User: Which sequence fits this backbone?
């Protein structure tokens, strides 16, 4: 990360201004609608300098979030392999990362991101664009059901992390990792595999799974 | 910390001092180890005044947490009825409360409680003593397994709330309540009913479920 030489790349004030502008942009407009050009303009620097310091927009986002890990590397890794063990691999990966030294930084990031509406929006962008979107891409899921399925998985994994690492509720907090994998992974797997409830198709605009775009008689 | 003299009931400064002392005590010593007497002493008031303003220790705790609802009333209500629908009733109750006007206050409470270690400890006490303990008491669960089962349920419900109300991840955020009940309740029910994983008995000191105290051959 730390780069020396040329253009005073160590200028911490400039970097801080860029990160601040990035946070503002990502929170206000979301990850997709934010551009490095606009962020650079807001920070009063040349876009090339943003690229030079941070690389891609995605890496800038991770830096703006103080993200201790890069889900772009971890998620595809956890999701490659037999589909029927995806739940197990996801839960074990989440616990392994948070049990590691990076975990306390992750707790800190999570806490600060939850603290108000503005930073919560950043966290939502992080979860959606960096985690869920990749998970959808890595898993074979019906496109009409994929967003609900992956967000259900996210609720279980986020809840597990909060219970174990943030609130530290016993026996979650000190349970052996494999106990939690064994207890939680089957439920994560069911969110991926179980048939969607009957009521889902009416929620989903009356579209039959897999038939995205069919007209909705209820007009919702 | 501002102390005024004379008990002038309704004195907001006095009430605030008591609540501040209560938060400190509950966070430092936990709910069980905190006494109204000690809290009154810390606030420089007579214990009778604490009872006068707030009633029981439990009600003082709810007031100190700015809790918008009283889980002591809701949990037993959600858990009475057929055991095989306990998961469904829990999920629907949680969504109903958070969808109600009290919900935004609950989001605010949750956010502020997550914000640092000190207030997170208060939230843990709240979850453990006001929610999980009641849930254990209302459900017929093997005592050796009850704490893990109820904390697993708590992770799923907490994660659902964070996804829907705090981070507002779509489609969780705007999904019809009954879609979420139908999708999530079966997993909550499984946390209550499914056999504990094999690995649990070694975690649990080698005790077979229901046979608390049996020796553990692995010696863990």
Assistant:
């Amino acid at each position: 990360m730390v780069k020396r030489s040329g253009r005073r790349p160590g200028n911490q004030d400039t970097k801080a201004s860029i990160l601040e502008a990035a946070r503002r942009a990502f929170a206000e407009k979301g990850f997709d609608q934010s551009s490095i050009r606009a962020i650079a303009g807001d920070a009063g620097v040349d876009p090339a300098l943003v690229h030079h310091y941070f690389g891609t927009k995605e890496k800038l986002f991770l830096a703006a979030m103080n993200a201790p890990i890069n889900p772009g590397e971890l998620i595809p890794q956890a999701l490659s392999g037999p589909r029927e063990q995806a739940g197990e691999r996801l839960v074990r990966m989440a616990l392994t990362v948070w049990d590691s030294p990076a975990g306390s930084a992750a707790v800190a990031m999570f806490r600060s991101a939850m603290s108000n509406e503005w930073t919560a929006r950043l966290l939502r962008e992080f979860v959606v664009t960096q985690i869920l979107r990749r998970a959808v891409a890595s898993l074979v899921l019906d496109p009409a059901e994929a967003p609900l399925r992956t967000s259900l998985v996210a609720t279980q994994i986020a809840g597990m992390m909060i219970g174990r690492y943030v609130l530290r509720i016993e026996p979650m907090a000190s349970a052996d990792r494999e106990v939690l994998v064994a207890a939680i992974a089957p439920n994560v797997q069911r969110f991926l595999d179980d048939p969607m409830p009957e009521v889902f198709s009416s929620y989903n605009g009356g579209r039959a799974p897999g038939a995205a775009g069919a007209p909705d008689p209820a007009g919702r």
